[in-house]
Write a sequence for this structure.
């Protein structure tokens, strides 16, 4: 159980790190998604892995329960990373439509496009 | 328990959706509402600063859940000061954005602006590490919108980089929080302070990893070496008023390091003894060097100012890295100063750049209207940023130099600050003479009919008093900071003494018995 969860986190993180080092927006977004899956599983495991245990105390004195707090944290983290990924996709689409390609790195704009140009217009 | 403590979070949180849904077709109404909101925020922040001035640590338990179980907001001198700084800066920036018409160039500027304020104020007030993450996300998601406000190819590409960088940072933040929770079983900052102090040195490996992960996350926000590279591209391509507001965003990172790495992983904690300072100090020296060289090497005005912000963060973190009360006092004074100095330069740059046909490129071009006024504003802003008297940068750097007298810090610290200041002075002086001085000579040689070659060029409008006022207000704030350096330093010293006595903080949050 521990081995499976730990290697899942590790593989997801490794894949995510590899992908966010790519040069194009699409693999980078996928990489960030993988990283957020990895961190969600990781957060879930921080409350220790307990199988078939409810996240509440069953009876007084009977302490077989799984920690409910990481579950709440994961829920928050999932919602936030989901929203963030949506925003990222929109910005990436905007950049793709404006620039014509989805390169992440910016070309040197010193000569052709001063930043104040749109401000002056 | 004063309910006003949560007002800096609730007020923008209520106002922002109202502006977004009800007033989205009426920019005048949105401006009025947003301006009133920010004005109210300033008033609340002043009230909170007075409240915190009594020296107590005021705790607001959300939903009245007791501390380690529920989320708490904590108001002490440090957080009150940061909220006040945010509110005043927001007022200045917002006036500029409305006066220059930046807010009408895209949609939902004011709604995003209020969400941004909500996130920043929340990050300063919260007493819970996971809640800090949530407020970081709130301020980040609003900053993504503000960053790409107005659109344009370069801005969207820079915005994409900024978002990717910060999403990776958020993931790291969650990993750090997960590690901390797995080790200590709590995320409340006061409770963490108790639990981390109980960890024996032999079992400290995990918590040390978590402390350093957290530091990396905050260092991304504070633009510290080696993760400072996102800042120049972002600030240089963001709308100028937004870049001016972002001057406080780097300070959120600095504040978080100050809060977490003194209260939880402070110098007196055996498990992480001295670990933050050891890494922070060289990083700060490198950041300062990169910023100073960047100022010297920049070929455009906006990246140059962005690099000067990087250099000021390096200077600030040098003082933070010492982790002593006096160095923290100096750091806080410099923090206020560099916020206003960065904002003044960005706002000034916006006034000039929008009137130059050359944009922000540092090349000789005919002088624009009001060359003298803009030159004076740039001169004042540059004096402040470089740390020359009479503005507050000089006092701030002097205090930092004084605080870095420790034999292990003095050589690297003093060299970095003094050499860095020299490079920044040279860089800013060069930019100023190209932009404002040489340009008058060019105009004299060029006959006026040259203008006819470019008939589409719009009439250049001189800046009205309302457009110049925010820049002047920022510079006036620097002058006031210099004049009232005595009382301000007294307050900041009390704030840093309070910060370095975590027992009071713990007792206020968890109840007196735990604070022993």
């Amino acid at each position: 159980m521990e081995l499976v969860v730990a290697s899942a986190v590790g593989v997801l993180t490794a894949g995510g790190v590899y992908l966010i080092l790519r040069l194009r927006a699409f693999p980078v977004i996928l990489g960030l998604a993988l990283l957020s899956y990895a961190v969600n599983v990781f957060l879930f495991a921080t409350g220790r892995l307990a199988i078939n245990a409810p996240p509440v105390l069953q009876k007084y004195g009977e302490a077989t329960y799984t920690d409910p707090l990481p579950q709440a944290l994961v829920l928050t983290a999932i919602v936030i990373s989901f929203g963030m990924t949506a925003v990222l996709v929109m910005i990436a689409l905007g950049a793709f439509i404006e620039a014509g390609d989805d390169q992440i790195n910016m070309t040197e704009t010193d000569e052709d496009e001063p930043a104040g140009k749109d401000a002056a217009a | 328990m004063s309910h006003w403590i949560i007002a800096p979070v609730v007020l923008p949180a209520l106002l922002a959706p109202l502006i977004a849904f009800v007033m989205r077709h009426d920019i005048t109404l949105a401006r009025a509402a947003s301006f009133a909101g920010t004005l109210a925020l300033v008033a609340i922040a002043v009230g909170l600063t007075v409240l915190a001035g009594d020296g107590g640590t005021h705790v607001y338990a959300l939903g009245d859940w007791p501390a380690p179980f529920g989320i708490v907001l904590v108001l002490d001198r440090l957080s009150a000061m940061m909220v006040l700084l945010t509110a005043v800066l927001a007022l200045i920036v917002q006036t500029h954005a409305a006066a220059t018409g930046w807010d009408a160039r895209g949609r939902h500027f004011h709604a995003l602006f209020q969400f941004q304020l909500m996130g920043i104020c929340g990050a300063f007030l919260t007493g819970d590490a996971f809640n800090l993450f949530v407020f970081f996300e709130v301020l980040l998601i609003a900053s993504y919108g503000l960053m790409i406000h107005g659109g344009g190819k370069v801005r969207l590409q820079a915005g994409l980089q900024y978002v990717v960088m910060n999403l990776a940072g958020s993931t790291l933040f969650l990993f750090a929080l997960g590690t901390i929770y797995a080790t200590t079983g709590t995320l409340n900052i006061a409770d963490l302070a108790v639990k981390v102090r109980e960890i024996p040195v032999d079992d400290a490996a995990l918590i040390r990893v978590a402390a350093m992960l957290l530091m990396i996350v905050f260092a991304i926000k504070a633009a510290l070496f080696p993760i400072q590279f996102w800042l120049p591209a972002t600030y240089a391509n963001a709308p100028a008023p937004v870049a001016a507001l972002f001057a406080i965003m780097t300070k959120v990172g600095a504040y978080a390091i100050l809060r977490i790495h003194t209260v939880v992983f402070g110098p007196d904690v055996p498990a992480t003894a001295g670990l933050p300072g050891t890494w922070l100090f060289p990083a700060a020296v490198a950041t300062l060097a990169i910023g100073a060289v960047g100022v010297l090497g920049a070929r455009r005005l906006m990246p140059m100012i962005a690099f000067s912000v990087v250099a000021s963060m390096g200077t600030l973190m040098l003082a933070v890295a010492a982790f002593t009360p006096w160095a923290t006092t100096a750091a806080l004074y410099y923090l206020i100063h560099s916020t206003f100095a960065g904002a003044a330069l960005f706002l000034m740059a916006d006034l000039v750049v929008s009137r130059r046909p050359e944009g922000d490129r540092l090349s000789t071009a005919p002088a624009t209207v009001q060359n003298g006024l803009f030159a004076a504003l740039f001169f004042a802003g540059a004096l402040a940023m470089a740390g020359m008297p009479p503005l507050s940068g000089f006092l701030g750097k002097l205090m930092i130099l004084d605080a870095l007298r420790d034999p292990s810090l003095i050589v690297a610290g003093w060299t970095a600050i003094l050499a860095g200041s020299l490079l920044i002075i040279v860089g800013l002086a060069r930019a100023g003479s190209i932009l404002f001085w040489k340009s008058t000579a060019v105009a004299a040689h060029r006959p006026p009919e040259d203008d006819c070659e470019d008939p589409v060029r719009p009439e250049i409008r001189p800046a009205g008093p309302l457009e110049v006022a925010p820049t002047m207000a920022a510079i006036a704030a620097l002058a006031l900071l210099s004049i009232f350096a005595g009382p301000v330093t007294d307050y900041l010293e009390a704030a840093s003494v309070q910060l370095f006595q975590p027992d009071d903080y713990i007792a206020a949050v968890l109840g007196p018995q735990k604070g022993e």
The beta strands of chain B are 58-61, 72-75. The longest helix of chain B spans residues 407-445. Residues 68 and 296 of chain B are 49 Å apart (CA to CA).
